[in-house]
Amino acid sequence: MSGHLSRLTWCQPEHCLSSRPGREISRWLLDEGSLTARLIEHCQGEFHVRVLSVNRATPTPDEISALAMRPRNQALIRQVLLYCNQQPVVYARTIIPLSSLRGALRGLVHLGTRPLGAVLFADKTMRRRPMEISRLKAGHICHTWTQYKGKADIWGRRSVFVLKNRELLVSEFFLPTLFEQQSKEK
Description:
This protein is α+β, with helices and mostly antiparallel strands. It has one domain (4-13, 21-185): Chorismate lyase (3-Layer(aba) Sandwich), CATH 3.40.1410. Helices cover 25% and strands 31% of the residues. It is built from seven helices and seven strands. It has helices spanning 13-16, 23-29, 35-42, 61-66, 116-122, 141-145, 176-185; strands spanning 47-57, 75-84, 87-97, 127-128, 132-136, 154-163, 166-174. Strands 1, 2, 3, 4, 5, 6 and 7 form a seven-stranded antiparallel sheet that branches. The longest helix is centred in the last third of the chain and has 10 residues, at 176-185. It is globular, with a radius of gyration of 16 Å. The model has no long low-confidence stretch (mean pLDDT 86).
């Protein structure tokens, strides 16, 4: 879905958090390492990816802006849920401009249930641009994309990754179920 209804406000963490997330949320939100690796460790191996969709579509205006794409240009949009112990804990949305799907990155179309993070962080040439964060309120249309049924705000982060001189945008939204699991473990 494009348009103003799906627009999110993103900002660099040090500049725009009017209300700060809690300490546990911040640890996940601001960690610059591989989310896949961290989740696998956290889940003690009970981790898997559920693909919601992989479609050629027009990204949202803020995604177009982040990738400096032309308005109405299409991209491959991959939406997944990352599961820990049979619970969805992260909603991830990847935007790959069609121009980035040439050459070495063609294989990204066929990831299936393999985590994208494993591909990105395995490549020594990968560069990650500065992270931005956002908070989804329960009434926002993007909140429904996460498939989270509760009313809690959902914190997210995104980064443009440069792989083989091609850009892609990865947004990750940390579902409250991740933090509910952590509080049970303590």
